[in-house]
## 1
Amino acid sequence: MSPAAITALVVLGFAVMLVRRRSLATLLVSAQAMVLGIAALSLARGRPADFLVAAIILLVRAVALPALLTFTRRRTPEPYLVIPATTVLVRLVLAATVVLIAAASIPPLGLGDRPAEHAAVALLSLGIAIVIMRRPALLQVLGILVAENGIYLLAISVPGGLPFVIELGVLFDLVLVVTVAAAFTHKIHGEVGSGDTDLLRALRD
Amino acid sequence: MSVLESIALLGATLLVVGTVFPAISRNPTVALTLQAAGIALIGSGGALVLFGAPLIGAEFRSSLDPALGIDGLTGFFLATLALVAVPALIFSRDYLAGVKRSRALVALCGLFLISLVGVVVARDPSLFLASWELMTLVPATAILVRRSDATVRRAVYVYLAVTHLGGVGVWICVLALAHYGALDNPAALAAHGSALQAFIIAAAIVGFGTKAGLMPLHSWLPRAHPVAPSHISALMSGVMIKVALYGLIRVLFEWAAPPPLWVGFVILGLGLLSSLGGVLYALMQRDLKRLLAFSSIENVGIVALGLGASILFSSQGDTTWAAIAFAAALLHIVNHAVFKTLLFLVAGAFERAAGSLDLDQIGGLLRRMPWTGGAFLVGSMAIAGVPPLNGFASEWLTLQALIHVALGPSLGIGVAGAVGAAALAATAALAVFCFVKVVGLVLLGPARRVEVETAVEAPPATRGALVFLAGCCVALGAIPGLLIPSLMELAPQPRTLANGPGLAIPGTGSLPSPWLLFGLLALTGLLWRLRGSKRSAPVPSWACGQRIEPSLSWRSAGFTKPLRLTLEAVFRPQREIVAIREHGQLQSLRYRSEIPHLFDTLLYRPIQRGALRGALIARRLQSGSVRAYAAYLLALLLALLVLARIGAIG
């Protein structure tokens, strides 16, 4: 995979961590999925079946899921600004630290593309870090998608690609997870009047 | 496809059809008949393989591809299952009449039988473990379908918790054996050293021992068996715990064979504890089904004594006696299956007729229910080891094996054998004491409640099932010698023994059991003849001039009081006397006595307290914040990456 695409993926991931607006974060995740999808399409050239699967995945990851999240965002307007858990600078420093530790720790996976391996684990840890450092439910779902994009990057970096049954199975799981998460986001908003997941701590007995 | 395979396949088909039949029909008779026909055919196929027909289906394999097969040991267990399941199904037709959700109970009974068959015919780890889990869950469901009050829910909870915790041992053992390829090639384990073998055997003893009810892993058994519907209790006690022993036998004598010497001592020790502990607690029970449940623990202990003796003989190179002890254990398995099924089914009939199973609330049922009561009498004599019934034959054979262990050249093994033989002798004596109490309180004497006075005999089909099982107790006691050679063939190092219908064992006296039976029948006939037309003439007992009241008659506690006083240090009975006074005058006395279950108070309760303390500590990790949980996940990811990087994993 080209260095530019890898850089773009990581930069977009960091941007999701930093931006304030949910709509912008959704666009950034969609763009990240688009970059990944285009990379997957270029890697699948000459293999029609794999190309078709990559195209389906691109459509779902870059269009359908962001559309679902946009729909959810419109149905859950925030009445007031959700106070961030930390400042932008702290988020940036912490995210960079986590990404550096993860990238430095990952042993060679034997994919033949070391930068892709580093980027994959960076996106995976970055996605989880987004869930940790962002309070709105929708941003946490976007964090899961960033982590998923890291795993997908590993999958397309496997020489010859993964069997399409596995890729479609993972895609099905992802759709299921995001659908359930979107439904819960709506439910949480309905119950507590906000998508701030920290308010859910009050439910603990 | 061979004729034998066709029989087994037809049986399996009928069993499955019988299980799903309640979904389309309200008539339970057809479903139960199909199930009975199916299990009878499967059992027949198993019996034919046991007695020398060629093996059916696949061999054991370590891969996860599902496979089925019947060899001699499986055949033995299938035949045992069929022998008791068919009468239990016949019994359940009348037993379930008018019961709420009877269709579900019929279907669950069929599913339970399928799971039991599944465990013994499975030839790969996946099918074995799936059937094993089903075998645990189905009876729990059946219990809850029948009753779901707080007591029952608690009993089911304990049953599921303990058997699943113990079941971890089964999973570890079977998957480890499959991983090392030992299911199809037992020699494969030897290449990996004795530590792995010891680990697998320890897991098997915990896993299978928990389900078999070996003390101290038995705590679920006296809780779950009494609350189940009687035909399910019968199958649980008669077959399910034997299927657990099947797993233990496969591991110890086949997959992880030959077991080291310490395993023989451990199995013998567990057998000793279970047999003596089981019968002592059985003696102290007032509820008939709970008493029978403790008696099951006792009998599993006797089987374990036989298996332990077999391992000790093998370690000394005495393969003939190892095979005899092994056959004694298997013979006791089938014998216990027969008489315990009979006793649980009769308990169900008594409960239906008399409205209670409290030993102090029944009485005099032999006169009101002569067929059912007579069958109960035969079953009680068999379980008490009274000759010439089947319980005596297998206990005698086990005792002979233990005595021969005691006569061995090694001091340690000799002492173990002597202690085991003494424990078995004590167990047999206490079992007689226990069932004299049961027969006296349940069958004899006056009725203690109005409902008992109006009790009527069970319907003909139920009577037929019970009399068939009682007949099996007599037949298996009369001709055990016909079974022994086939059972010795199943030992890891098969030996043959020329035997007639009785038992003739090398280096010891023989047991001419058919002649014992004939002698007893002749004596009974002679006494009958001498009695002529005389009949018993009941007269009131002398009670120091007081009016005879039910409260003055023998009670369970009174009967066992001498033993309770002798073993007070063991039982630690708790008594409470409350004197109720008004204006300084004594109005009444309230007395309560309880025998606490020592294993609960000394073993399980401290573990439970520790687990709860651990859970409280772990609860602090449960912050209720989604972000905290994600932080745990990230920490785990980074830790795994670092461990992989330094080469600790992967």
## 2
Amino acid sequence: MSRKLLLPAVAAIGLVFSQAVWSQNIKFAILGPMAFVQGENHWAGAEMARDEINKAGGISVGGKKHMVEILKIDTNEIQSVPDATNAIERAITRDKADFLIGGFRSEAVLAMQEVAMDNKKLFLGVGAAASKLGINVEQNYERYKYWFRASPTKDVDLAKTLFAVMGSVAQQIRTDLKKEVPKVAIVAEKTAWTEGLIKAAQANLPKMKMEVVGLWQPSAVATDVTAELSAIKRAEADIVFTIISGPLGIVLGRQMGELQLPAVAWGINVEAQKDGFWQATAGKGNYVSTLDTYAEVESTPKTIPFVKAFKARFKKSPIYTAATYDAIFSLKQVIEQTGTIDAEKLIPAIEKMEYVGTGAIVTYDKRHDLNWAVGKTSGIAVEWQDGEKVPFWPPQTKGMKPFKLPKH
Amino acid sequence: MFQDILISGLVNSGVYALLALGFSLIFGVARIVNIAHTAFYMLAAYALYGLLVIAKVPFLLAIPLAVAAVVALSLVCYKLVIEPVRQHESAVLIATIALALIFQESLLVAFGGSFRGMPNAIEGVVSIIGVRVSYQRLIVLVVVALTLVATWYLLNRTRLGLAIRAAANDQEIANLMGINVGRVAMYTVGISVALAAIAGVVVAPVFVVDPLMWLAPLVTMLAIVVLGGLGSLKGSVIGAFIIGYVEAITVFAVPSGSYLKGAVALTIMIVVLLIRPEGLFGVVFEEER
């Protein structure tokens, strides 16, 4: 090839290459157990964010528009922690993700956090509550500063919400059932994230004028808790305080209904957050209540439009891992503000950011955890009433309905 | 508390007995260590879910259809996967692990990882010696009792049972006596999986159905058959009741350690094995079979 031809060819290739660079998409790796409902919601929230942002022209970085590209990364973390670390490694090295969003199981997210920090990639957690994730940031800021917990609040703050709601449930029992000191049975699955909450419950409930009648800790995958429930019935518990993320939540709700246990279940029951809970309990999960994130109430000005749009598109309600939507939009906000996707420059901006999301008003503390406040990041409480998931707390939020006690 | 332990232990023991009996049966007759045994139990639960909740088939028709479908599938698996490698015990072991994982992943693809429930055959509860028991649990008890009696009858009062017992005692002699050992092994696979499938369909409305539901009972079932004596049918049933009641007692005696019920059951198994290495009703030497 002659030099006359070579020079224009190189110039043309250079031009094409530079255009490719400038029109490059911003890649968000969405990490989650995609065969499970948590991962499905991670992905669904991200899809909504992508479509809305791209429809509006993309994300502006220093005046140039970039489209959002989301990468579906199945971590399989419910079944295997090594699968999760392999998945995040692949997202960073092969897929060249710019940002990492998601994770659900604390044990797996702790392992994935290490991989992300090794690679200095911004990782916005959406799903794991273990305090250790934020403690890492405080103890070794330079290494762990790339981690932010976008949702939910850390386990200690979840406890604050749980006890705030517990106080109002106990008050209703005092008023309606004339029991001055309601009896509480704690049922917690035996996993790492429940330990702090159990200790907090045992320490705080007596101070709140409630009697703890016992602690039952079935295996996280127990398929039968009739023995436990028989013992709880004999202990005459008024409240079954649940700290459950797995299938145990369905078994407990169903068998409480079957055995007509005259007690209300309140706490964390991740399965009860899902629309499928009523069907899974064969319609016996009445009065099961749980901490939740989304309902058609005005938690923030964006909540109701988001929940309605989600239901219209996916034919189901969002659960808390759909906050990938907020994670992407919050990153959009700081990217446009700073004009860069460079993690080192984005971190100080995220630390100072206030972002009004769909389930929370997001600001971060020194551990890169959400600052907890009722009505801002506390989430909501819902109760199953005759097949409907009814939001009842915080009472000041517009759209809340009354909490009901089981018939005695 | 005694009544609670009595009733809770009875239901769980019955389900364990069905699973362990089927597992022991196929091991005793064909020396097949079928790790996929509880995966068939899971498949039966899903088949019932599909028929009952999705296809809206009535309960009384859905149950036999689910059991029959799973038994048919097990026979196909036996012919295609297990029989060609039957003479190599380690190959059979690995093949059945592979089968179980294939079933698990297939269900994960077909149904997702969601936990599923289905309605009871009969709603309501009854109080027995002060303990509330749902009618569905009573159904489990009745079906388990009938199935155990039917299995005993089949093995001890029919020509097929005689052939199965003969093959279990000594395959070579049974062969010389004109028994088609290969065919008997196949029938035994069918019976064994039918027991697992019956366990699956009766507990499906009581438990939660999910693609990992085969793992927990697998460990318990293995503990039971080792405790009772590998290949001993009587040992499997008695071992099931020992483990079932140990679990129930653990829950009531140590509420905050109810997750330990599996570990306590396995510890009992180890203690028994230290005292009697062949298990409660096992044979000491292979030659004694």
